[in-house]
Amino acid sequence: MSGPRTLPHVDRVGIQERVDALAKRSIKAEAKRQGILLAISVLDLTTLEGADTPGKVRQLAAKAVTPSPAYPEVPSCAAVCVYPSMVSVALDAVAGTGVHVASVATGFPAGQTPLATRLEEVRLAVADGADEIDMVISRDAYLSGDDARVIDEIEQIKDACGPAHLKVILETVELGSYDHVRHASMLAMDAGADFIKTSTGKAAEGATPGVILVMLEAIRDYVQRTGRVVGMKPAGGVSTSKAALAVLVLVKETLGDDWLTPDRLRIGASSVLNDLLLQYAKTETGRYGRAEDFSKE
What is the CATH number of the domain that holds 277? Predict the structure, then answer.
């Protein structure tokens, strides 16, 4: 066991005031159009269902590569995110396009399988061609105060990733407070996370603006302290164009324009792309397209 834990204090009221102030920002006209295109370019288009088939994954990959055939200026998404068993299908489908393949691993979403099993799952996903691994921390270790085990497991999984980037999912809704979100963020970054990610998307709540801001401030302070750049991935609950644009505002105001790039920012989502495309069509034509004009998958 690690020694007694000293949690950082996060000012809840201050976080909420900042979130509320930034939420009032109105993004109009050309800035909105550019924001929508940027949001699409940082999406990890995701399918993580028991009913996933190779056909569904190929369809998702095609949409990630060309989100809107009607608007060729709309960029590709950053990545497709799939279960390890679907990595090779996704890789084949995005070959030569620049779209990355991310895979959830480590007993996603619960993270309750033995460490040896989780490490093997990571190695297999990378061997099949995953560029990025999205792992879940052991919440049982974290919640029992065993920070040393949390760090050790992340370090071992990072090592198993080899050349692949590691995104560490905190599942913030299970952590209980902003103080814990901040503490878990720092543990993950100290252990070598390339990105920190809010949620699996399987819990009731995920990427709330307050949680995102706490994690962004942790990244800012970590980068100032160490000089090592870490990315951010809100996931779970970013389901509307408005929510995606609000993420961009939070990132820009906390970390600056350098983080408004797929190398440093991802948004994990399955449904938000359709709303972004609908909103984009409106900026181009002055009216909303029909939802059925954009494929659901």
Answer: 3.20.20.70
Residue tagged active-site, from 63, 167, 197, 252 = 197
Q: What is the predicted pLDDT for the residue at 3?
A: 58
Average pLDDT of span 145-162:
97
- Count of domains observed in the chain: 1
Q: Is 63 a residue of the active site?
A: no
Q: Is 32 a catalytic residue?
A: no
Q: Which of 63, 158, 167, 233 is catalytic?
A: 233
For residue 127, how many other CB atoms are within 10 A of its CB? Answer: 12
Contact 273, 284 (CB under 8 A): no
Q: Is residue 5 part of a domain?
A: no
Is 6 among the domain residues? no
Residue showing tokens 């995953």: 130
Mean pLDDT of 108-112: 91
Spot the catalytic one: 44, 63, 131, 134. 134
pLDDT of residue 297: 46
Please say if 202 is a catalytic residue.
no
Q: Which domain holds residue 81?
A: 15-284
E strand segments, 42-148: 43-46, 79-82, 100-104, 132-136
